[in-house]
Amino acid sequence: MRTAFVALTLLLLAILSPAPARAADNGEWSVRPADSAITPRAAFDLPARPGTTLTDRAVVTNTTGSELTFRLYVADAHNTERDGGLAVRGIEEPQRDVGAWGKPERDSVTVPARSAVTVGLSLDVPHDASPGDHVGALVAVDTRVRPADGSHVGIQRGVGARIYLRVEGPAQPGLAVEDVRFTARSPQIPWTGSSGSTLSYTLHNTGNVKLAPRVSFRTGGMVLGGPGERQLANVPGELLPGQKVRLTETWPGAPFAGWGEITVTASANDVRGSGSDGFLKVPWLVAGPLVLLSAAWLLLRRRRRASRATRPALTADHG
Question: 126 with 274, same domain?
Fold first, then answer.
């Protein structure tokens, strides 16, 4: 009996290369802008004026030994919730920005084995387009439905070349750090085990241009253990206008005792944003003796009161 696979979603989360300087390529096919008269290009990087139409060309390359057919479409880009990497809207999803403005010359293209096909691309920038950066991609989706590992659900794979439009008008960068949360899970006895403490925060691009944020944190107050300041590594290379990304980072050397504040600061394009969370932790190695001393003091005080209450009263003899 043959098993039917259902295509529920396009596997598009990794279709955009991690670095803008690289063309999108998954090892079987690639999509890139046609080379300009001067230099090769890895992305469509175009200035735009509201109310104008832009035209360009793209090259779809098939590096396999078989003929492949692709559906072509233009999509809006966004930062993923998982790690802040760039992804695009699926072919069946509503497109509201670059994805709604752009259209390939052909909706589908068949590329022979080990060959390339050039297709045209047009972008109609609306009259009311907002100033600043608008990011999307020209996507080539393999029409084949492949089985997902260990599942009866099928997937389709897509690869896209980034489209960067900078619409004329004032550039207004803005960056905020929101909802900082420090969760201390250090060992109760200091230096006896690894720390599972985490630092979570939300990066929010509040401006109209894409940013490459740098993020660090510092501790303030009375703390034992942990560095006073550190750069955070798991930060998205590009944070698009209006996007929010929730990030969590494990902190192996977090403070194991003390009180104060953990402050996260992000900076990019001469703008900064910061947010803080309070910190209070007393390990049982310290808290235990304090609790015992308090309990002993209360017990001693109670016994003294009881002793005074049972002591016989003295009377004066006037005989």
Answer: no
User: Which of 167, 188, 208 finishes a domain?
Assistant: 167
Taking a C-beta distance cutoff of 8 angstroms, is the pair 171, 27 a contact? no
Closest alpha carbon to 19 in 222, 187, 236, 183: 236
pLDDT digits (tens, 9 = 90+) for 154-203: 788 899 999 999 999 999 999 999 999 988 765 555 545 555 688 899 99
Residue 205 placed within a domain: yes
Check if the beta carbon of residue 52 is closer than 8 Å to that of residue 62: no
Distance of CA 12 to the CA centre of its chain: 16
**Are residues 107 and 194 both part of a single domain?**
no
Is 192 in the same domain as 239?
A: yes
DSSP codes joined into one string, 265-288: EEEETTEEEEEEEEEEE--HHHHH
In a domain, residue 244? The reply is: yes
70-122 tens-digit pLDDT = 999 999 999 998 889 999 999 989 999 999 999 999 999 999 999 999 999 99
Number of domains forming the structure of the chain: 2
Domain check: are 156 and 271 in the same one?
A: no
Per the CB < 8 A criterion, the answer to whether 111 and 60 are in contact is yes
CA-to-CA separations, 232 to 119, 179, 215, 240, in angstroms, rounded: 41, 16, 6, 19
Are the CB atoms for 198 and 185 separated by under 8 Å? yes
Contact 154, 147 (CB under 8 A): yes
Rounding to the nearest 10 degrees, give the CA dihedral for residues 15, 37, 45, 156.
-20
Q: How many CB atoms lie within 10 A of CB 202?
A: 16
DSSP H helices, the chain, are: 98-101, 284-310
Tokens encoding 58: 């793209």
Specify if 299 maps to a domain.
no
Strand, helix or coil at 180?
Answer: strand
Q: How far apart are CA 176 and CA 271, in angstroms?
A: 9
Structural domain includes residue 310: no
Q: List CB contacts of 265: < 8 A, sequence separation 6 or more.
A: 177, 215, 216, 217, 218, 272, 273, 274
